[in-house]
Write a structure and sequence with these properties.
By secondary structure, this protein is an all-alpha fold. It has a domain of 94 residues: F1FO ATP Synthase, CATH 1.20.20. It has six helices and no strands. It is globular, with a radius of gyration of 26 Å.
Length: 139
């Protein structure tokens, strides 16, 4: 290969490497905060935190459990409003727990809230056909 050909091959190779580098996401690049996986993490974390909060606050847990058993409507909303008016710290605590999901909902322009997500998940669980257990073999 002549020096000119070697130089041309080097320039082309260097160009391809720089295009590949520029088009490759950085290893430390932040994930898309609106990706389904990130939304699931936010909802999951809020659910876990709400669960731990309710386990450590039996009165709030009992009231929310009773409200969840009521048909949705003015009666259940009135019960919640009365409880949280009488227990503003519980309302604040649960709002703080839900804040990351609320922020994500706003930032990603999602038309859904944490209670709606949980309601949808519950509805799917109740209506989904039960799949038979599968046995995994070592073959």
């Amino acid at each position: 290969m002549t020096p000119i050909h070697r130089h041309a091959v080097f320039v082309v190779a260097a160009g391809l490497v720089s295009v590949a580098v520029l088009n490759t996401p950085a290893a430390g690049a932040a994930p898309d905060p609106c990706a389904a996986s990130e939304i699931a993490k936010a909802v999951g974390n809020a659910s876990i935190n709400a669960s731990m909060y309710l386990d450590s606050h039996p009165q709030t847990n009992q009231v929310l459990t009773a409200v969840a058993a009521q048909p949705a409507g003015p009666q259940s909303l009135a019960t919640l409003e009365a409880y949280f008016d009488a227990n503003p710290q519980a309302a604040t605590d649960l709002q703080v727990i839900q804040r990351p999901v609320t922020a994500l909902t706003s930032r990603c322009k999602l038309p859904i809230s944490l209670p709606q997500v949980l309601g949808l998940m519950q509805g799917v669980q109740q209506t989904a056909p039960q799949a038979p257990a599968q046995v995994l073999s070592a073959s």
